[in-house]
Amino acid sequence: MEKSVILPFLHLLLLLHLPNAAKSSINVGIGIGIGSGGNIPVPSGPSVPNQNNAYSALQGWKSAITDDPLNILDTWVGPNVCSYKGIFCENPQDENSTPFVAGIDLNHANLKGTLVKELSLLSDITLFHLNSNRFSGTVPESFKDFTLLQELDLSNNQLSGTFPTVTLNMPNLIYLDLRFNYFKGSLPEQLFDKNLDAIFLNNNLFSGEIPQNFGNSPASVINLANNKLSGNIPASFGFMSPKLKEILFINNQLTGCIPEGVGVLTEMQVLDVSFNSLVGHLPDTISCLQNIEVLNLEHNKLSGDISDVICSLRRLLNLTVAYNFFSGFSQECSRLFNFGFDFSDNCIPGRNMQRPRPECSVIPGGNLNCFRIPTPKPLSSQIFLHHFLDSHC
Q1: pTM
Q2: Structural domain includes residue 290
Q3: Where would I find the Leucine-rich repeat-containing N-terminal plant-type domain in this sequence (predicted)?
Q4: What is the pLDDT, as a whole number, of residue 351?
């Protein structure tokens, strides 16, 4: 069988044995991202009356900003909003129309205040960047009027409330950055059905389980680190877009196994599941991650042997497995000690800096079967899949 059919076959095998609810939410082969040639609507003229709306919106926002240590708002005077610092205008296709506000970039402005509903009057903007300010409160529901918005960066502020579902109503959004805020509650399923190329939700207070349709996301980068997410990594993880490059689950409360379908993500470069409570053996399908550069598994409860197929990954630059319960490794893995790879605080006999022997007498989840695709004949299916991948990855 040719290598080109391996991964579609694994997709099919996974799909056949997923619960019906998960099947209905999975779309195999999705994924349109930045540079894909999608048609983003461009205004043929300004919103009517664009300049007046922009003036009203920005002056209303200015009145809600209580601290401006860099004196940026000193330039926000008069009706010519295109002269305001941090405001960017474009000329419409209609040469007889006036320029319209197309973007806001106030990154690192250190402004303190709130986001006001009047900002939705800027309905033509495609970029809204507010990284590293001190905005608090919630994201206004009126932001649903940002129908042309492609990039929303609200990171490193003091925003709060539940996940701002208004972002799910922005049809052209491809970059969503909410990291380093105080958002809480569960992640909505619709988030992973949206055509986003980048999802940054790290360093918030999100909790609950990751939705089962997680694998629908076409994103190339997803960061869920430093939240309070719990439960298993969804089995649909193996159905994620083939363009997925980086995914970070660091420092949550995740349990269960690393899904077997991880091997489908052959373009992935960074996988970090550190500081969780994952258990069981490493799936052999990790051997298919031929482009992986960073594989961080530290501070979990993983066990078993670390095999040759993992340590021989050709592009691996950083393998960290410290603070687990691994009990052995292959000859290929032994050479990695000389490259500073961290195998400490495991249960590997004859190696320094391992766990005390009593801690290794009971392995967490030691009896757990981590092959997470239920089948009528699980043993034969496991043997077939492992043989298939081992022979062709």
Answers
A1: 0.83
A2: yes
A3: 55-89
A4: 84
